[in-house]
Protein backbone atom coordinates (compact mmCIF):
# COMPACT_ATOMS: atom_id res chain seq x y z
CA UNK A 1 0.00 0.00 0.00
CA UNK A 2 1.39 3.41 -0.95
CA UNK A 3 0.77 6.65 0.86
CA UNK A 4 0.68 10.06 -0.72
CA UNK A 5 -0.82 13.50 -0.67
CA UNK A 6 -1.63 14.18 -4.32
CA UNK A 7 -4.02 12.11 -6.41
CA UNK A 8 -4.36 12.32 -10.16
CA UNK A 9 -3.96 15.29 -12.45
CA UNK A 10 -6.48 18.11 -12.20
CA UNK A 11 -6.64 19.86 -15.53
CA UNK A 12 -8.17 23.31 -15.68
CA UNK A 13 -11.12 23.58 -18.09
CA UNK A 14 -9.73 24.95 -21.32
CA UNK A 15 -10.96 28.27 -22.58
CA UNK A 16 -12.75 28.58 -25.90
CA UNK A 17 -9.61 30.10 -27.36
CA UNK A 18 -7.45 27.22 -26.15
CA UNK A 19 -9.84 24.67 -27.60
CA UNK A 20 -9.82 26.07 -31.15
CA UNK A 21 -7.78 24.08 -33.67
CA UNK A 22 -5.61 26.45 -35.69
CA UNK A 23 -3.92 23.70 -37.65
CA UNK A 24 -5.08 22.51 -41.02
CA UNK A 25 -8.02 20.15 -40.44
CA UNK A 26 -6.23 17.33 -42.23
CA UNK A 27 -3.08 17.57 -40.10
CA UNK A 28 -4.69 16.40 -36.85
CA UNK A 29 -5.99 13.01 -38.05
CA UNK A 30 -2.77 12.30 -39.96
CA UNK A 31 -0.57 13.19 -36.98
CA UNK A 32 -2.55 10.95 -34.62
CA UNK A 33 -2.51 8.11 -37.11
CA UNK A 34 1.29 8.22 -37.06
CA UNK A 35 1.29 8.32 -33.25
CA UNK A 36 -1.05 5.34 -33.09
CA UNK A 37 1.30 3.32 -35.26
CA UNK A 38 4.47 4.28 -33.39
CA UNK A 39 3.08 4.20 -29.83
CA UNK A 40 0.35 1.57 -30.00
CA UNK A 41 2.03 -0.35 -27.19
CA UNK A 42 1.67 2.60 -24.81
CA UNK A 43 -1.81 2.47 -23.26
CA UNK A 44 -1.69 5.98 -21.75
CA UNK A 45 -0.68 7.60 -25.04
CA UNK A 46 -3.30 5.61 -26.91
CA UNK A 47 -5.96 6.70 -24.44
CA UNK A 48 -4.90 10.35 -24.79
CA UNK A 49 -5.05 10.06 -28.56
CA UNK A 50 -8.58 8.60 -28.46
CA UNK A 51 -9.69 11.42 -26.15
CA UNK A 52 -8.28 14.11 -28.45
CA UNK A 53 -9.81 12.50 -31.52
CA UNK A 54 -13.24 12.59 -29.89
CA UNK A 55 -12.77 16.26 -29.06
CA UNK A 56 -11.63 16.88 -32.64
CA UNK A 57 -14.77 15.19 -33.97
CA UNK A 58 -16.87 17.42 -31.71
CA UNK A 59 -15.24 20.43 -33.35
CA UNK A 60 -15.57 18.97 -36.83
CA UNK A 61 -19.27 18.21 -36.43
CA UNK A 62 -20.23 21.11 -34.17
CA UNK A 63 -23.47 21.74 -36.02
CA UNK A 64 -24.67 18.25 -35.14
CA UNK A 65 -23.55 18.85 -31.56
CA UNK A 66 -25.51 22.08 -31.33
CA UNK A 67 -28.59 20.29 -32.67
CA UNK A 68 -28.29 17.60 -30.00
CA UNK A 69 -27.77 20.29 -27.38
CA UNK A 70 -30.94 22.10 -28.43
CA UNK A 71 -32.91 18.86 -28.18
CA UNK A 72 -31.48 18.34 -24.70
CA UNK A 73 -32.70 21.77 -23.63
CA UNK A 74 -36.18 21.01 -24.93
CA UNK A 75 -36.31 17.96 -22.65
CA UNK A 76 -35.14 19.78 -19.51
CA UNK A 77 -37.25 19.06 -16.50
CA UNK A 78 -39.09 21.66 -14.49
CA UNK A 79 -38.70 22.13 -10.77
CA UNK A 80 -39.52 19.05 -8.65
CA UNK A 81 -43.19 18.34 -8.06
CA UNK A 82 -45.02 16.56 -5.26
CA UNK A 83 -45.26 13.48 -7.49
CA UNK A 84 -41.53 13.39 -8.26
CA UNK A 85 -40.61 10.62 -5.86
CA UNK A 86 -40.15 6.94 -6.63
CA UNK A 87 -40.91 4.10 -4.23
CA UNK A 88 -38.14 1.51 -4.40
CA UNK A 89 -39.27 -0.82 -1.60
CA UNK A 90 -42.24 -0.85 0.76
CA UNK A 91 -42.74 -3.41 3.52
CA UNK A 92 -44.40 -3.35 6.93
CA UNK A 93 -41.12 -2.13 8.43
CA UNK A 94 -39.49 0.13 5.87
CA UNK A 95 -40.19 2.50 3.02
CA UNK A 96 -37.34 3.25 0.61
CA UNK A 97 -37.69 6.08 -1.88
CA UNK A 98 -35.53 7.55 -4.61
CA UNK A 99 -35.15 11.22 -3.70
CA UNK A 100 -34.80 13.71 -6.54
CA UNK A 101 -31.94 16.21 -6.64
CA UNK A 102 -32.58 19.75 -5.35
CA UNK A 103 -35.22 18.63 -2.87
CA UNK A 104 -35.09 19.13 0.89
CA UNK A 105 -35.99 16.22 3.16
CA UNK A 106 -38.10 18.47 5.37
CA UNK A 107 -38.40 22.12 6.25
CA UNK A 108 -40.00 24.45 8.75
CA UNK A 109 -40.27 27.16 6.11
CA UNK A 110 -43.83 27.28 4.72
CA UNK A 111 -42.46 28.57 1.41
CA UNK A 112 -40.78 25.20 0.80
CA UNK A 113 -43.76 23.52 -0.83
CA UNK A 114 -41.93 20.47 -2.21
CA UNK A 115 -39.89 18.39 0.23
CA UNK A 116 -39.64 14.64 0.75
CA UNK A 117 -41.97 15.12 3.70
CA UNK A 118 -44.69 16.81 1.61
CA UNK A 119 -44.20 14.29 -1.19
CA UNK A 120 -44.72 11.38 1.20
CA UNK A 121 -47.75 13.04 2.76
CA UNK A 122 -49.38 12.93 -0.65
CA UNK A 123 -48.01 9.54 -1.71
CA UNK A 124 -48.47 7.51 1.48
CA UNK A 125 -50.75 9.50 3.84
CA UNK A 126 -51.49 6.33 5.82
CA UNK A 127 -47.89 6.37 7.12
CA UNK A 128 -48.10 9.85 8.64
CA UNK A 129 -47.32 9.86 12.34
CA UNK A 130 -48.86 12.98 13.95
CA UNK A 131 -46.65 12.51 17.01
CA UNK A 132 -43.53 13.24 14.96
CA UNK A 133 -42.35 16.75 14.22
CA UNK A 134 -42.04 16.07 10.50
CA UNK A 135 -44.61 13.28 10.12
CA UNK A 136 -42.10 10.51 9.25
CA UNK A 137 -39.04 8.79 10.75
CA UNK A 138 -36.05 10.18 8.84
CA UNK A 139 -33.16 8.16 10.28
CA UNK A 140 -30.54 9.52 7.89
CA UNK A 141 -30.08 12.48 5.59
CA UNK A 142 -29.19 13.37 2.02
CA UNK A 143 -28.05 16.84 1.00
CA UNK A 144 -30.50 19.06 -0.84
CA UNK A 145 -28.55 18.67 -4.08
CA UNK A 146 -27.95 14.91 -3.73
CA UNK A 147 -30.35 12.39 -5.23
CA UNK A 148 -30.82 8.75 -4.32
CA UNK A 149 -31.98 6.26 -1.75
CA UNK A 150 -33.64 7.39 1.44
CA UNK A 151 -34.82 4.96 4.14
CA UNK A 152 -37.95 5.75 6.19
CA UNK A 153 -38.80 3.22 8.94
CA UNK A 154 -42.55 2.79 9.32
CA UNK A 155 -42.77 1.86 13.02
CA UNK A 156 -40.94 2.39 16.31
CA UNK A 157 -39.16 -0.95 16.32
CA UNK A 158 -37.82 -0.66 12.78
CA UNK A 159 -36.83 2.95 13.47
CA UNK A 160 -34.87 1.91 16.54
CA UNK A 161 -33.08 -0.92 14.72
CA UNK A 162 -32.27 1.14 11.63
CA UNK A 163 -30.96 4.00 13.76
CA UNK A 164 -28.76 1.56 15.66
CA UNK A 165 -27.39 0.14 12.39
CA UNK A 166 -26.41 3.62 11.21
CA UNK A 167 -24.86 4.59 14.56
CA UNK A 168 -22.77 1.40 14.74
CA UNK A 169 -21.60 1.70 11.10
CA UNK A 170 -23.24 -1.54 10.03
CA UNK A 171 -24.89 0.10 7.02
CA UNK A 172 -23.22 -0.21 3.61
CA UNK A 173 -23.65 2.93 1.51
CA UNK A 174 -22.56 3.39 -2.11
CA UNK A 175 -22.70 6.58 -4.13
CA UNK A 176 -22.09 7.54 -7.75
CA UNK A 177 -20.48 10.79 -8.83
CA UNK A 178 -18.95 12.50 -11.82
CA UNK A 179 -15.97 14.65 -10.87
CA UNK A 180 -13.78 17.12 -12.67
CA UNK A 181 -10.42 15.91 -14.00
CA UNK A 182 -9.08 12.43 -14.59
CA UNK A 183 -8.16 10.51 -11.43
CA UNK A 184 -4.95 8.60 -12.07
CA UNK A 185 -5.25 5.89 -9.39
CA UNK A 186 -7.99 3.29 -9.66
CA UNK A 187 -8.75 2.84 -5.95
CA UNK A 188 -8.12 5.51 -3.31
CA UNK A 189 -8.80 5.81 0.40
CA UNK A 190 -9.04 9.24 2.04
CA UNK A 191 -8.61 9.46 5.82
CA UNK A 192 -8.95 13.14 6.66
CA UNK A 193 -11.09 14.52 9.46
CA UNK A 194 -13.91 16.99 8.85
CA UNK A 195 -15.20 19.82 11.05
CA UNK A 196 -17.65 22.70 11.04
CA UNK A 197 -16.62 25.99 9.46
CA UNK A 198 -16.91 28.57 12.24
CA UNK A 199 -17.00 31.61 9.94
CA UNK A 200 -20.35 33.43 10.28
CA UNK A 201 -21.15 33.29 6.57
CA UNK A 202 -20.21 29.61 6.16
CA UNK A 203 -22.78 27.82 8.31
CA UNK A 204 -23.47 25.26 5.55
CA UNK A 205 -19.81 24.73 4.79
CA UNK A 206 -17.46 22.08 6.19
CA UNK A 207 -13.64 22.12 6.34
CA UNK A 208 -10.92 19.54 6.83
CA UNK A 209 -8.80 19.06 9.92
CA UNK A 210 -5.95 21.53 10.16
CA UNK A 211 -8.00 24.35 8.68
CA UNK A 212 -7.90 27.49 10.84
CA UNK A 213 -11.68 27.72 10.73
CA UNK A 214 -12.35 24.08 11.68
CA UNK A 215 -14.33 23.29 14.81
CA UNK A 216 -15.44 19.98 16.31
CA UNK A 217 -13.36 17.93 13.88
CA UNK A 218 -14.29 14.23 13.61
CA UNK A 219 -12.53 11.45 11.76
CA UNK A 220 -13.74 10.75 8.23
CA UNK A 221 -12.87 8.01 5.74
CA UNK A 222 -13.94 7.55 2.12
CA UNK A 223 -13.10 5.00 -0.56
CA UNK A 224 -13.11 6.02 -4.22
CA UNK A 225 -13.15 3.58 -7.15
CA UNK A 226 -12.75 4.85 -10.70
CA UNK A 227 -15.41 3.45 -13.02
CA UNK A 228 -14.93 5.44 -16.22
CA UNK A 229 -12.91 8.33 -17.63
CA UNK A 230 -14.31 10.65 -20.23
CA UNK A 231 -15.56 14.09 -21.09
CA UNK A 232 -18.19 16.27 -19.48
CA UNK A 233 -19.11 19.00 -21.91
CA UNK A 234 -20.31 22.39 -20.81
CA UNK A 235 -23.04 24.84 -21.67
CA UNK A 236 -22.49 24.32 -25.37
CA UNK A 237 -21.96 20.79 -26.52
CA UNK A 238 -19.58 21.86 -29.29
CA UNK A 239 -16.02 21.67 -28.08
CA UNK A 240 -16.21 23.14 -24.59
CA UNK A 241 -15.65 19.85 -22.83
CA UNK A 242 -13.41 19.10 -19.87
CA UNK A 243 -11.92 15.84 -18.59
CA UNK A 244 -14.14 14.08 -16.06
CA UNK A 245 -14.22 10.81 -14.13
CA UNK A 246 -17.16 8.69 -13.06
CA UNK A 247 -16.56 7.14 -9.65
CA UNK A 248 -18.13 4.77 -7.16
CA UNK A 249 -17.88 6.07 -3.60
CA UNK A 250 -18.12 4.24 -0.29
CA UNK A 251 -18.13 6.40 2.85
CA UNK A 252 -16.71 4.47 5.80
CA UNK A 253 -17.97 7.20 8.12
CA UNK A 254 -20.99 9.47 7.84
CA UNK A 255 -19.89 13.08 8.20
CA UNK A 256 -21.74 16.00 6.71
CA UNK A 257 -20.56 16.78 3.14
CA UNK A 258 -17.90 14.09 3.54
CA UNK A 259 -17.85 12.84 -0.05
CA UNK A 260 -18.04 16.31 -1.53
CA UNK A 261 -15.23 17.66 0.63
CA UNK A 262 -12.90 14.67 0.27
CA UNK A 263 -13.17 14.81 -3.52
CA UNK A 264 -12.70 18.56 -3.51
CA UNK A 265 -9.48 18.49 -1.49
CA UNK A 266 -8.08 15.92 -3.95
CA UNK A 267 -8.59 18.44 -6.75
CA UNK A 268 -11.53 16.54 -8.24
CA UNK A 269 -14.62 18.52 -7.25
CA UNK A 270 -17.98 16.95 -8.09
CA UNK A 271 -19.43 18.42 -11.27
CA UNK A 272 -22.10 20.94 -10.33
CA UNK A 273 -21.00 21.29 -6.69
CA UNK A 274 -21.58 24.99 -6.18
CA UNK A 275 -20.43 25.04 -2.54
CA UNK A 276 -17.04 23.35 -2.93
CA UNK A 277 -16.15 24.91 -6.29
CA UNK A 278 -15.92 28.33 -4.63
CA UNK A 279 -19.41 29.02 -6.01
CA UNK A 280 -18.15 28.85 -9.59
CA UNK A 281 -19.69 25.65 -10.97
CA UNK A 282 -23.11 26.93 -12.01
CA UNK A 283 -23.47 25.59 -15.56
CA UNK A 284 -24.51 21.93 -14.92
CA UNK A 285 -28.21 21.37 -14.35
CA UNK A 286 -27.50 19.49 -11.10
CA UNK A 287 -24.78 18.32 -8.75
CA UNK A 288 -23.63 14.90 -9.95
CA UNK A 289 -23.83 12.96 -6.68
CA UNK A 290 -26.30 10.11 -6.20
CA UNK A 291 -26.93 7.62 -3.37
CA UNK A 292 -26.92 4.47 -5.50
CA UNK A 293 -27.14 1.52 -3.09
CA UNK A 294 -28.08 1.10 0.58
CA UNK A 295 -27.74 -2.10 2.61
CA UNK A 296 -29.26 -2.08 6.11
CA UNK A 297 -29.09 -5.28 8.19
CA UNK A 298 -31.64 -5.48 10.99
CA UNK A 299 -33.29 -8.32 12.88
CA UNK A 300 -36.64 -7.38 11.38
CA UNK A 301 -35.53 -7.30 7.78
CA UNK A 302 -32.32 -7.30 5.75
CA UNK A 303 -32.74 -4.68 3.05
CA UNK A 304 -30.45 -4.25 0.04
CA UNK A 305 -31.83 -1.52 -2.20
CA UNK A 306 -30.35 -0.18 -5.41
CA UNK A 307 -31.44 2.40 -7.99
CA UNK A 308 -30.73 2.71 -11.69
CA UNK A 309 -27.66 4.70 -12.72
CA UNK A 310 -28.76 8.33 -13.27
CA UNK A 311 -25.45 9.33 -14.88
CA UNK A 312 -25.53 7.15 -17.98
CA UNK A 313 -24.47 8.48 -21.38
CA UNK A 314 -27.87 7.87 -22.95
CA UNK A 315 -29.41 10.71 -20.94
CA UNK A 316 -28.28 13.65 -23.10
CA UNK A 317 -28.86 16.17 -20.35
CA UNK A 318 -25.96 14.69 -18.38
CA UNK A 319 -23.54 15.86 -21.11
CA UNK A 320 -21.25 12.98 -20.21
CA UNK A 321 -19.25 10.85 -22.66
CA UNK A 322 -17.30 7.82 -21.45
CA UNK A 323 -14.01 7.17 -23.22
CA UNK A 324 -12.28 4.58 -21.02
CA UNK A 325 -14.07 2.03 -18.84
CA UNK A 326 -12.06 0.65 -15.94
CA UNK A 327 -14.77 -1.04 -13.86
CA UNK A 328 -18.34 -2.06 -14.53
CA UNK A 329 -20.97 -0.92 -12.09
CA UNK A 330 -21.68 -4.38 -10.71
CA UNK A 331 -21.15 -6.57 -7.66
CA UNK A 332 -17.49 -7.01 -8.53
CA UNK A 333 -16.96 -3.25 -8.26
CA UNK A 334 -18.83 -3.20 -4.93
CA UNK A 335 -16.61 -5.98 -3.63
CA UNK A 336 -13.46 -4.27 -4.86
CA UNK A 337 -14.23 -0.98 -3.12
CA UNK A 338 -14.97 -2.87 0.12
CA UNK A 339 -12.14 -5.38 0.23
CA UNK A 340 -9.21 -4.58 -2.06
CA UNK A 341 -6.19 -2.75 -0.66
CA UNK A 342 -6.23 0.77 -2.16
CA UNK A 343 -3.54 1.98 -4.55
CA UNK A 344 -2.96 5.03 -2.37
CA UNK A 345 -4.10 6.23 1.06
CA UNK A 346 -4.42 9.97 1.60
CA UNK A 347 -3.93 11.19 5.17
CA UNK A 348 -3.84 14.59 6.82
CA UNK A 349 -0.37 16.12 6.73
TrEMBL record:
Residues 1-20 have a biased composition (Basic and acidic residues). SUPFAM superfamilies: Pseudouridine synthase. GO terms for molecular function: pseudouridine synthase activity; RNA binding. GO terms for biological process: enzyme-directed rRNA pseudouridine synthesis. Residues 93-264 form the Pseudouridine synthase RsuA/RluA-like domain. Residues 1-21 are annotated as: Disordered. Belongs to the pseudouridine synthase RluA family. This is RNA pseudouridylate synthase domain-containing protein 1. The gene is rpusd1.
Amino acid sequence: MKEGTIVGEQRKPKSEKDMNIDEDENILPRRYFLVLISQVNNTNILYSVVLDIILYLYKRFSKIGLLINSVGHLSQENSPLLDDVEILHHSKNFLFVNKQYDVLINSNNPQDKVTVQTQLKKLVPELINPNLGHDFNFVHRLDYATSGILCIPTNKKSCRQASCAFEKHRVDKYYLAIVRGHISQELIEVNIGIGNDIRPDHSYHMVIQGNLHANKVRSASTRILVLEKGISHGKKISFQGFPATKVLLKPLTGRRHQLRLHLSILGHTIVGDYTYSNRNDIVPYRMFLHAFRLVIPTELEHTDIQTRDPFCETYLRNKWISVQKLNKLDEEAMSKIRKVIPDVVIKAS
